[in-house]
Amino acid sequence: MHCPRCGARLAQAPPTVCAACSYASYVNPRPTGTGIIVEGGRFLAIRRVRDPRAGWWDLPGGFCDAFEHPADAAVREAREELGLSIELGEFVGMYIGTYEFQEESLPVLDCFWLATVAAGELRLDPSEASEHEWFPLADPPQMAFSTMDAALRRVAARLAP
Fold first, then answer.
1. Which of 45, 67, 64 is nearest to 145 (CA)?
2. Contact 134/39 with Cβ under 8 angstroms?
3. Which helix (H) or strand (E) is 151 found in, with range?
4. Range of 70's domain?
5. Is 74 within 8 Å of 152 (Cβ atoms)?
6. How far is CA 107 from CA 31, 70, 82, 92, 100, in A?
7. CATH of the domain at 39
8. Do 110 and 98 form a contact (C-beta atoms < 8 A)?
9. Whether the Cβ atoms of residue 112 and residue 31 lie closer than 8 Å to each other
């Protein structure tokens, strides 16, 4: 590992301080925003086409852009991935997870909201998803990331009759 500021070799993996320039290096979680789009006891899932976890069921969402609030990221990602405008409802929760990228296991802070479709016609971005399906909240498939499984369990418990 090398210092991102001066390029000097680090004595250990972050968190650490560079001996050459005193830059403090951390591995902080990357925030995400995801809408759990619900309708009549069901939720909308998409099948991933990209790694990690290509072929697994996913929820529409993704990483925040610089200085973007996770709620705004959830709305943006639904528009980009599904062509839909969504309205966010109740905050479901934040979950610490991992994301495999460039041979690293990165920490993520996944933020979930209940959501409904506000406008638009569903059209998948083929670079993101190959298909979509409405699944019952009471019986979801295993999702691409464990944080999604946990958030869906919480939503199912909250919305159970």
1. 45
2. yes
3. helix 146-159
4. 29-159
5. no
6. 9, 16, 26, 19, 9
7. 3.90.79.10
8. no
9. no
Tell me the pLDDT tens digit for each residue of 131-145: 999 999 999 999 999
pLDDT in tens, 23-34: 999 999 999 999
Q: Which two tokens stand for residue 71?
A: 């709620």
Give the position of tokens 């610490």: 96
Total domains in the chain come to 1
* Burial profile 13-49: b = 16 or more Cβ within 10 angstroms, e = fewer: eeebebeeeeeebeeeeebbbbbbbbeeebbbbbbbb
Model-level pTM?
0.92
Specify if 119 maps to a domain: yes
Residue for token pair 């830059």: 23
